[in-house]
């Protein structure tokens, strides 16, 4: 549905040239919710604006719904833009127009008749749950309601693609959730392709299928959300994920010395990560039953990425060294992620 | 006060109102588009055109820095060309308008600059053309500020019109000078000042009221 090829964007400013995008390649399939995450200044705003050519790339090709946008003139581009909806962090509603008139605005631009506009707007108001607010002005609405108007306005011309520029960043967590629910709903109902940029991993986790991590104008990591969450590669990605899922060791590990090799009376500390149905398997208890070892859980966390459960456990295993190694090999045969954190002298800390 | 004086007063009031109304209308008619061009040709705006922007900016500044009384005399040839004479109320309208056009342009410029660029971007994203952005976004969004600016322009013109007496333009200011000052008629002086104050008050209150009604923020 959307294809970006070798996108480069260079700005000339008073303090020299700024290379905002350095060769970005992306492809978004029909019906996907594609998230782009990055810190401020990473180039994500520029990137999303390249999709509807609010920013024209210095180099590269943008294709949306089979139409190459980078080769169009102003007039043709305006026609194509009517098929791409966009919502914004600060909503960007017209303060001089009522809710109804704001939603009618793109329809007026598309030269639709009064009757058509009326029918469409009433329908959209119902979709976003604001039928009772139709004659109010944006100043009288809450942030969440304003974004709902923004969404209705973006959907008015039945776009194929919806671009979301930090659409929930100005909202509180409760409202963010309801807006994301609405987006998910729209995605399902209309098979609408959604591209959203954000700096909040929570948003990605909540609704995206695919995610790309952008840093310094480049996509540094890209893939299915579940894969990126369970096996992050770059440090930036790890940092984003750690904001909602703790991948770091709990602080008390800093105070004990960990050895990388086993010794006669040391305990083994492991990090286990579970994805999907392996979370339902009683791995720990069956391991304890099979081998002469004890296990104590030092840290645990189970979360859901949309409907897929995903969890991390840090366990300390104690017992004969031989049994520990057997248990480790047993765990490696199961469907889970294993990371040996290290060995710790048995009496270094009280086993809780 | 004699019957004669009252007639004179009424005539002067009408002259002032007429001069101010016509020159306000002309300056709005030309100043508003000029202000729009000044904003939209700015760097990074929808019709970016730096040379045009610089030239218009310079002309506007030049006109605004010329004192009105000098402008009025300096453009007498232009006035004669436009209205056939350089004396009288109609002749006064020419310099009044020329002085007010750049004033209106700057006021409209600052009003339009207050419109959040995000809103313009949103309109662009919906496929609006520059013309649609101007007529459907920029002007409606800044209308309360434009109305206040025009109110200010009318009030300034009431003040400037007093100087129109210098070229026989008539009006209340002229009356105050000729009768109130030069013929020591304190009563005429007082009454014209009171009328001028009342006029300014009425214009300001009306402008405030309209602007408030339009403001939905």
From TrEMBL, chain B:
Its topology with respect to the membrane? Multi-pass membrane protein
**For this UniProt entry, what is the primary localization, expressed as one broad class?**
membrane
List, alphabetically, the Pfam families matched. Answer: BPD_transp_1
Q: Name one GO cellular component term.
A: plasma membrane
Q: Which Gene3D superfamilies match?
A: MetI-like (1.10.3720.10)
Q: Where are the transmembrane segments?
A: 20-40, 52-76, 82-105, 145-168, 188-210
List residues of the ABC transmembrane type-1 domain: 13-203
Asked if Phosphoprotein is a keyword of the record, the answer is no
The record's subcellular location field reads:
Cell membrane
Q: Which UniProt keywords apply?
A: Cell membrane, Membrane, Transmembrane, Transmembrane helix, Transport
Q: Name one GO biological process term.
A: D-methionine transmembrane transport
Family listed: Belongs to the binding-protein-dependent transport system permease family. CysTW subfamily.
Report the NCBIfam families cross-referenced here: PRK10782.1
Q: What is this protein called?
A: ABC-type transporter, integral membrane subunit
